[in-house]
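Aim 2, interim progress: modelling of the zinc ion-bound target.
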Amino acid sequence: MGADLVIRQANEPRIDMWNLPWQHLKRAIFEIVGRTRAKKVDNERTYHGEVCEIDNRVATAVVNKLGMHERNVFRYITSGAFWNEMQLQSIGWSTGLCQHCEEQVSDSTHVLWSCPSINQHHKCALLNKLRPSALPKCIQLGIPAALGSSFTQPFRGHALQPATELEPRESKLIGAPVGSTASYAASCDNKVLQGLLDEDGLRQEALNARQSFQILKQLKSGPCIIIPYICHPAAPSTINVYTYGSWKFPLRFHFSVGGAGVWWPLRKLKGHPLSEGEQQLAHHKASEDGIRLCTPIGGYAGSSTRTELAAGILAISAHGPVHIGSDSQVFVDGANQILSDLGQGIETHPNWKLTADGDLWEHFYIAAKESKGIGPFA
Ligand SMILES: [Zn+2]
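Predicted structure of the complex, ligand included:
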């Protein structure tokens, strides 16, 4: 971390501690700690083979679906505390035969994957069609390694993949493209991803899927607040701009993306041109019946409230009076509170850096205070 309070790590998105929304700061730091701990375990323990990075989201999702006893079994296996019959035999505690099928046990994957007596109880019959040797060692032991970024390779990449000749059916099950059409499409996807990563001077093969996606959606520049002209007319009594924000895949934390858009019905560029803020913040499309503006919302993480707020900022970045229509209660309540305080001359200066989405609320506050009249929100 430098004097600018930005944490920089190789192949990781920058963490700007000063400008990162308050609610994401703890998670961002904890993830760095978690990854460092996983790397240390990866270097010092051998039972799981190579892992590189653990997908904590998958591990948490699995654990949360298990009962208390099953959780303990899962921990017992994934932490390497599990001793198989062969290991127990070496200290004289076992005959080396499986207690269920009485076959000779050669490693820990027997009871987890290869024991016929246990396999007949599998609820997911698909697993019986997959040889354990087709899976990375860590996956065999229940440790979810992070997804690889290459579309032409299996889910966890070639690096973790055992040197086993795979049948096409197995290749498909572990995520590798099968057939010339799928392989060509996958190689094209790789080129698209590499083209995007070129802007950051990074190589796709050095990154996993999380790193690639987070780097692509990280903010390239610091916050930029452009205030429209001071607006003297009062806000119209009817809505003249509609805002909407959307946050996709919120449960897939590292892969979630969002966007904000506004719709100005009946607005014409000739009579109501774009402000500098609108030009800087968004793409626009003018049509006969109005103007649409939209912008992607990136950054370390986000939420639907954050995108709704960004859309609100886009709306008040226009010159002239605005009467915003939004379907986000959180945004409407927050904006009305700020406008109410400003209308009563109350100088509310909350510590924006310690407020959820404070970076965007501060932008809204400054734009409302320095430019707009106090109008109603709906
Ligand atoms: Zn067995």
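The CA atoms of residues 235 and 322 lie 5 Å apart. Residues 98, 100-101, 103, 110, 115, 117 surround zinc ion (CB under 6 Å).
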